[in-house]
Amino acid sequence: MFLQDVVESLGRYRVKYALVGGYAVALHGAIRGTIDVDIVVALTRISLERAEQALNDIGLQSRLPINARDVYSFRKEYIRKRNLTAWSFVNPADPLQVVDILITEDANTIKTVTKKVFGINIKVAAIPDLIAIKKKAGRAQDLEDIAALEKLQ
What we know:
- The chain has about 150 residues and is α+β, with helices and mostly antiparallel strands.
- The protein contains six helices and seven strands, in the order H-E-H-E-H-E-H-E-E-E-E-H-H.
- It has a single domain (about 1-145), classed as Beta Polymerase, domain 2 (2-Layer Sandwich), CATH 3.30.460.
- The strands form two sheets. A five-stranded mixed sheet has the order 1-2-5-4-3. Strands 6-7 form a two-stranded antiparallel ribbon.
- Strand 4 (about 85-90) and strand 5 form a beta hairpin.
- Helix 3 packs across helix 4 (about 70-80).
């Protein structure tokens, strides 16, 4: 399964991460369908480089012509001037395999819980932190996710 491949590769490369998107909502117990995997990583040059290597290792490539050093060096500019909030990776052989790294959040500041799925441990943003991230995004789906997560608290 794709999520398992992503998590195992991040583990091999020792990337500090937290799952934060639709999969995170679902793993907390809310009914939620999603295709892409949304994560946050520690916003250090080394962590971004390791995340890039981990995703490349499973066949994913950056959608934009940027690399980890670019994201580390120009992250604030990308967010402010280009409205780039996520660094997206896709598998050219299977366009449904997508990972978005939110560059607006730092895994070092997010509380996580561990969920065991498919025999592997997955770091998931804790419900309060997940709600906070989704409030910042404010899209219709995020508002629905917030309502579902609040019922689980």
